[in-house]
Amino acid sequence: MAEELVDEKPLDEEPAELTDEDLDRIADTAIGALQDILKYFEVGEVTIDEYEGDEGELILDITGDDLAVLIGRHGKTLDALQFLVSAITVRTIGFRYPVIVDVEGYKSRQREKLESIARSSANRAASQNRSIKLRPMTPYERRIVHICLRDDDRVETASEGEGSARHVVILPR
């Protein structure tokens, strides 16, 4: 859908080994894009901390005063912000590299909730020997569930549905 706008020209595969210079270029590009976008939100002084996530992704965490406008209702504005920063970064560096935009740890807290839901749903699926369908989720949220349960030998996960109705199903093995 909207992602098709980004994919007008073929993108190169991510290089097998990224150098520190490559990672710095990715971070500088993503931070620059984020700072440019933030100028349009009247949020005052902000700090952008960068660090590497558990799955090797670049996480940019914005901190400051009164940043609720950047999160939006149910994180929708934050999702859009992340999409824009990712699209600009991909277009600039020429290959896909996972960039996560967070605001004062909001996504981190959401991730913990999703992982808890995933584990309890996996327990239910295994103990009741039936599949458990989770609520519709964004691609980012579904990825968290899949990653959380990938090492659980009792269950497997699959995504089903189309568009905004796409959801994860946890199946007993």
Automatic annotation (TrEMBL):
It comes from Eggerthella lenta (Eubacterium lentum). Residues 108-173 form the R3H domain. Pfam families: KH_KhpA-B, R3H. GO terms for molecular function: RNA binding. SUPFAM superfamilies: R3H domain (SSF82708). The lineage of its organism: Bacteria, Bacillati, Actinomycetota, Coriobacteriia, Eggerthellales. It comes from the Bacteria. This is KH domain-containing protein.
